Amino acid sequence: MGCERLKLTDIKNHFWSLGLSIGLFVSSVVTLIIVVWERLENPGSIFYDDSGTHWGFIFDTAISWFVPTFVYTTLIVAVIHLLFSTIKWVYKWLHKRQI
Q1: Per-residue pLDDT reduced to its tens digit, 36-91
Q2: What is the CA radius of gyration of the chain?
Q3: Cα–Cα distances in Å, from 36 out to 6, 40, 51, 68, 94?
Q4: Under 8 Å between Cβ of 19 and 78
């Protein structure tokens, strides 16, 4: 016995790992896009000025986008995966009963 390793190909079979992996990917991409966009726009010179880059504001912006996007994406993907898995299971169960 012991802890079995989760193979990359098995991620689609585990709703929590699928949700986490897609949530991590989506939130990373969204955060990167927003941080770069905000850095380029630099509203009110809060991200950089003559004295240099203000990494604190960049970090705050990244965290404020990453965390909620990660949580919502992970939950939505996990719930959708559970729904599809349940529908597939019920369909197979009903199909077996008809035979």
Answers
A1: 999 999 988 899 999 999 999 999 999 999 999 999 999 999 889 888 888 888 88
A2: 21
A3: 34, 6, 19, 18, 51
A4: yes
What is the secondary structure of 15-76 as a DSSP string? HHHHHHHHHHHHHHHHHHHHHHHHHHH-GGG-SEETTEE-HHHHHHHHHHHHHHHHHHHHHH
- On whether the CB atoms of residues 30 and 3 are closer than 8 A, the answer is no
Among 23, 33, 31, 27, which residue's Cα sits nearest to residue 60?
31
What's the N-to-C CA distance of the chain in angstroms?
38
| Model confidence, pTM | 0.75
pLDDT at position 37, please? 95
